[in-house]
Amino acid sequence: MTLIRIKMHTQILIAIVLGVLGGILLGPMASVFSPAADMFVRALRMMIVPLVFSSLVMGIVNLGSLKRLEKMGARALVYFVSTTVLAVVVGLVLVSLFRPGIGSQGNLLPRSTQVDVIHQSDRFSMGDFFAQIVPDNLVEAMVKGEMLPLIFFSILVGAALNLLGKRASGFTLFVDGLNEVMMRISQWIMALAPIGVFVLMAVMVGHTGFVVLKPLALFVVVVMGAMAVHLGVTLSFFLLSVKVSPRRFFEAILPALATAFTTSSSLATLPVTMDSLERRVGVSGRVTSFVTPLGATVTMDGTALYTVVSAVFIAQVYGFDLSFVQLFILSVLSTVCSISAAGVPSAGLVTIVILLRAVNLPVEGIGLILAVDRILDMFRTVLNVYGDACGAVVVARLEGEVLEAVS
Ligand code: ASP
Fold it and tell me: pTM higher than 0.85 for the full model?
């Protein structure tokens, strides 16, 4: 009973520590927790489609006038794009400064020949990217969990309901009800988050351990360092500029960060992110329900940063000198690809292949970083979710909301 009274973020931290210890102690036997871990992730994923649809639609209906949609949408997009670009810049600066790929060629190159993990990945085409935002079959998009088409459709439905007003009130009421139901179920899942985080962590550590291969250590340090700078400096700057305390915000959003860390999926984390924003940070449902689902898909600062650093690292190992134009292409592509990438585990790996192809680097270079991708995925997903949540808070403040819990 006393456990209930411990604050949520303390419970989560305890869960992470216990999970790591449990994983170390049990080793592969930690897989006894696998069914529970699976159940937690499946419960989160089960929420994604109905939650994104109902919350985006109601987010737009509740705006009142569509003029506000333009304003809030524009603010959110400016935030999303500028933070992602900054993340890429931070990554580029650090990887160019520390050059983790220089000097380790001898250790790294032989292994790369054994790899053929990613074969399906296609070339990136701007035209296709835009065309595919429009679903040609809504049900198929939902079944496959394709987020951009779902978001596109939800925005159309929201805008139509907004304009139709009373004439479609029956349907609006239904979606509103659906949204309330989804938020309530999210609260239940959130209450289970400490247990979910514990089992996921134990299974992860028990299975793979935290072994980071030595030749890759500098690469890992550069990626993590760049992510820390982005989270601690760049995003703090955004928060401070709207008078939000980064420390209190971090604490309030911790359940979402821990869920992101252990699931490696920003989409699966969405129910927890929304719940934390509304009930712990105090952001209105109006802003949360519009900005957060959009952000979970569109803004992935961690992924953009990771993919650009990885591509440059691979170039360094293979001894390619990248020209300014190539670096520019990598930066633009990593930003755009992070927008189109899905918030699921290892999505960033596919993006790296696209980047390598774009500037004619050897695609098998991806093999160099496979060993540490799983662990870095956990960290970049945290940054993805943190950036998304920051966006909601910044927009809320710009809309004049008073967020006492974090100011
Ligand atoms: N796992 C990341 C996410 O869900 C995406 C990635 O692989 O970078 O946000």
Answer: yes
